[in-house]
Amino acid sequence: MAYEVRSILKQVGYQVRSQTGEYTVLADEPVRAGGTAAAPNPVQYLLVALNSCLAITAESIAKNHPEIKLEKFEIVTTGKVKRFADKTSKIAAINVHFNLHTVLAPKEVKTFINSVIKYCTIHSSLDPDIQFNFEIEYL
C-alpha cells in the first residue's frame, strides 16, 4: 500500500496545507517560533499519528479477539525534542500512557499492549534511537 501527500507552503507564518486523498490538513508553528499557531506543528502531528495508529491497532486486535472486550482505550503521549548545537533537532523520547478498561487480567493486558506496539506501523517506522517509555493504567 502506498500513500501520497501533497503539501504547499502558504506564505503565512509557517503554515503548510497538505492534501491526502479527500482530506486537507493544516500545519503551523507557534507564534513564539514565527508561526501563527493556526494548527498543530509537525511534531504534534507525529504524536497524533502514533496515538491514532496505536488506537486503531488496538481496535483491530480487539475485533479479532472478542474475549478482550475493550470497553475504553485512551492514550496520552508526550514527546521530548532535543536541540543540538548546530540548531538541528530530533525527537529524543516519547512517553506513551495507555488508559484502558477491559476484562483481561493484568498479564493479558501486558501481552495485548505488546501486540499493539508490535503491529503499529507508525511505531515500527520511527527512529530506533528514540527512547520509548510505555505505561499502562487500568480503569
UniProtKB/TrEMBL annotation:
One Pfam match: OsmC
PANTHER family on file: HYDROPEROXIDE REDUCTASE
The protein, known as: OsmC family protein
